[in-house]
């Protein structure tokens, strides 16, 4: 399971303020806390700063890398901001994300071609956001093939089928879950990744919904999550779900998590 820590996102009030004030210590603390909680990548997102996004994203990458050894997951819909952030990143970053939108695809394929960068392939096209399993599969197929043909190893591709709020359509949960299952089965060796919180948009007690959804997605094969790694209840649920899904020899991960107190709540 790959965990991407989501907390360094300018849409969160404290982070937006820290970026605006160039408060490196505040950002570093959130990076270190997430790394110590088990994050494999630290997501960095400065998307609210129109016109300054590239500059701020570069600053976030530098600041995070001064504080931790974790690589960044560079989160922006703007290829230029991603280019800028990558130019200062040390080691192997994850790009969040490429999609089938033509300008985004054409701009980012040359960046990942023949490299060892990890890349999130977001199921979105110029026709908009997919709603059904089938629409997601068609986009995933074109994205995976396009990347593989450009010498991106399948093991470096993380397909994000795109979570949509279940409050707007009762089938948005199941269509996403079935997409995870179909993608994992049809494209052997590819990874899957998702941000969870959209599923609960507009509903009360969102944490509870996000956790239930994460566990259901793991039971369909999901192996990457963009989450708040400081949420111990969420992490306990994820570790347990992986053990139950057959990904934990001799229940060692479960037992280690129990003993380490990392997952106590
Ligand atoms: N897929 C991919 N990337 C993504 C997403 C995705 N990046 C952004 C987002 N979705 C995941 N990141 C976050 C970061 C922070 C929060 C949610 C998702 C967050 N949300 C608070 C909440 O849900 O209650 C509200 C914000 C706040 O704290 O003020 O913190 O799907 N590839």
TrEMBL record:
GO CC aspect terms: cytosol
Keyword set includes Transmembrane helix: no
Organism domain of life: Bacteria
One Gene Ontology biological process: tetrahydrofolate metabolic process
Domain Pterin-binding: 1-265
InterPro entries hit by this protein: Dihydropteroate_synth-like_sf (IPR011005), Met_Synthase/Corrinoid (IPR050554), Pterin-binding_dom (IPR000489)
Family matches, as Pfam families: Pterin_bind
Keyword Transferase: yes
GO molecular function: cobalamin binding; metal ion binding; methionine synthase activity
Keywords, ordered alphabetically: Cobalamin, Cobalt, Metal-binding, Methyltransferase, Transferase
UniProt record similarity statement: Belongs to the vitamin-B12 dependent methionine synthase family.
UniProt xrefs under NCBIfam families: PRK07535.1
Protein name listed in UniProt: Pterin binding enzyme
Organism: Desulfosporosinus youngiae DSM 17734
